[in-house]
Specification:
By secondary structure, this protein is of the alpha+beta class. It has 4 domains: 73 residues, Nuclear Transport Factor 2, Chain: A (Roll); 100 residues, Nuclear Transport Factor 2, Chain: A (Roll); 137 residues, Roll (Elastase, domain 1); 135 residues, Neutral Protease, domain 2 (Orthogonal Bundle), CATH 1.10.390.10. It contains 11 helices and 22 strands. Strands 9, 14, 15, 16, 18, 19 and 20 form a 7-stranded mixed beta sheet that branches. It has a 4-stranded antiparallel beta sheet with strand order 1-2-3-4, with helices on one face. A hairpin with a 5-residue loop joins strand 1 and strand 2. Helix 6 packs across helix 8, helix 6 packs across helix 9 and helix 10 runs antiparallel to helix 11. The longest helix has 25 residues. The radius of gyration is 24 Å and the shape is globular.
Length: 566
């Protein structure tokens, strides 16, 4: 991927003009518009623009286009999630009398203010927390058109029993639209992050939907998990600072950095040391200093994970930092007290790592790769952290964590990810009894995650609904087994051979990264992910190739689409 200059106002206008010229072909009028959300680098010298669909200037939530552009800004391809269904279309020559019906001349004049929507959310969160909230950032609200969705069976699946449904049997369709505010709340209840996105009716203040935005797992430096490792630091005024000025620019500290939260909820100051030898390689002793050798070990873990994640993305994809523009980020160690979590915050585009209580320090290489993976997704597809898209968001971070682990264990060099080196489980190193948080090859081993898609998937917590896609990625990379008693057997693989053939971690990771950064929209679900993954495989490795077939088989193995012969 190439470096990308932020487009000028003229370039943005030219892009919008191309989209507006396509209105008639799509059966939409001038009330339908487009809003450029973000540009980021694309493969082979291209650019990627993400564009929201709007109605009378108000964005329609989850309705957007991903556009791949050539160097001159001309549209080469478009991948879209369209939730504009029937907005502004009349029925029998008359506008729908309903204020919210899909055929309505939909009004975008709110009946309540954005402040009232924010107050409603804060009141609800305060009641749920049972205590006053401390803001991490000022709450904000944006007016949106909220598509209320329903699942509809295709003709061939109308009489299928629920348990026999395949992901491609159901289609998400727009039932109607509501005018709403999307309220972003980033606060703490005590030392617990309470990060929420909430959809509030702009008519009466009712809460229509909400989801958590704590994107987390539960979960020479002397590192805790990787032995003695080289870490980049900066010498200034006779002191060594844990700032890596070879990776990333700008941001809060001017380059990649590790800070000491010192049991608080804010990032704190950058780690400083008299010598350039850090840590003791041991688990943090609760109640001890966060700045002595033992306290520095968490910072060593974090810097080693940050460096290797940055290098994996840059060397394999030429993707720089989290956003593709090489904007520096940082990791705060020792967040809260005995905190059994690590999380990515979209407020600072940074990560927070706890010391653990039931767990050891959460700064293992796969956990840090996971958290930084959330940053990449936030800068690209921005998969909504709820339902199936939320499961795909979590899975994308698990995939990133495993790829980074393999890359780091092989020495952190080169432009490809080795076939081996990762363990295909998440968080084994941080576990005090060596029990992982998640098993990618058989998610159900955790007792809560399903191995395959079902119509109930969207109702699960995103850390569980990620399971089937994790299994898909394992099969795509490593293949499956025909032994029905084995952990890598799938009952849905019914073509030949019974055990599908994997294509290796490097190819699987490249296909996933391309789909996530150039094709997925915020509303992508499992069925859409399959379609976009096939497109990505064909773009990278050719139509009808073994890679495209492997994608189809890997998704078939989790009940998304039909199986095919190799």
């Amino acid at each position: 991927m190439s470096a990308l200059v932020v487009p000028s106002a003229q370039a943005r206008a030219a892009l919008l003009a191309q989209l507006e010229a396509r209105r008639a072909a799509r059966g939409i009028d001038a009330r339908h518009g487009f809003q450029v959300l973000v540009h980021h680098p694309g493969p082979d010298g291209t650019q990627v623009a993400r564009v929201a669909h709007t109605w009378k200037g108000v964005p329609i939530f989850g309705s957007e286009s991903v556009l791949v552009l050539d160097a001159g800004g001309r549209i080469l391809s478009e991948s879209a999630t369209d939730r504009r269904a029937d907005l502004g279309k009349s029925s029998g020559g008359e506008s729908s009398p309903s204020a919210n019906g899909p055929a309505a001349d939909f009004s975008v004049t709110p009946a309540i203010t954005s402040r009232a929507a924010i107050d409603a959310v804060l009141a609800a969160l305060t009641r749920a927390a049972g205590s006053m909230l401390t803001p991490a950032a000022a709450p904000r609200a944006e007016l949106i058109v909220w598509p209320v969705m329903r699942s509809e069976r295709g003709p061939a699946a109308r009489d299928k029993p629920e348990a026999e449904l395949n992901a491609l049997d159901l289609q998400d369709v727009v039932d109607h639209h509501e005018l709403a505010y999307l309220v972003h709340t980033r606060a703490y209840a005590g030392d617990r992050p309470l990060f929420r996105d909430t959809v509030v009716s702009a008519r009466d203040g009712a809460i229509l939907a909400e989801w958590s935005m704590v994107q987390s797992v539960v979960g020479v430096g002397h590192s805790q998990y990787s032995g003695d490792v080289p870490i980049n630091t900066t010498l200034a005024d006779g002191k060594y600072k844990m700032i890596d000025d070879t990776r990333g620019t700008g941001g809060k500290f001017g380059a990649m950095a590790i800070t000491n939260a010192n049991h608080g909820t804010s990032a704190g100051a950058v780690y400083v040391n008299d010598s350039n030898t850090w840590g003791d390689g041991k688990q943090y002793v609760a109640g001890g200093s966060t700045t002595n050798a033992n306290g520095q070990t968490a910072a060593v873990n974090a810097m080693w994970g940050l460096m290797n994640t940055y290098d994996t993305l840059k060397n394999v994809f030429n993707w720089q930092s989290l956003d593709g523009h090489n904007t520096a980020t940082y990791i705060a160690a020792h967040v809260n007290t005995a905190y059994d979590n690590a999380y990515y915050s979209d407020t600072c585009h940074c990560m927070f790592i706890g010391d653990g209580s039931d767990f050891n320090s959460l700064g293992s290489i796969d956990v840090i790769g996971h958290e930084m993976g959330h940053g990449v997704t936030a800068a690209t597809s921005n998969l909504t952290y709820s339902g199936e898209s939320g499961g795909l968001n979590e899975s994308s971070s698990d995939i990133n964590g495993e790829a980074v682990e393999a890359y780091a264990r092989a020495g952190g060099k080169g432009d490809s990810v080795p076939l081996t080196g990762n363990d295909w489980v998440l968080g084994k190193e941080i576990s005090k009894n060596a029990t992982p948080l998640r098993w990618m090859y058989r998610p159900s081993k955790d007792g809560s995650s399903p191995d395959a898609w079902s119509s109930s998937l969207k109702r699960l917590d995103v850390h569980y609904s990620s399971g089937p896609n994790n299994r898909m990625f394992y099969f795509l990379s490593q293949g499956s087994n025909s032994d029905r008693a084995g952990d890598t057997f799938s009952q849905y693989l019914v073509k030949q051979p019974a055990a599908m053939t994997g294509i290796g971690l490097d190819k699987a990771y490249r296909i996933w990264f391309r789909a996530n950064t150039t094709k997925f929209t915020s509303s992508t679900n499992y069925a859409d992910a399959r379609a976009k993954m096939i497109e990505a495989a064909e773009e990278l490795y050719g139509k009808g190739g073994k890679e495209s077939i492997a994608v189809q088989r890997a998704y078939a193995a989790i009940n998304v689409g039909a199986d095919v012969d190799e």
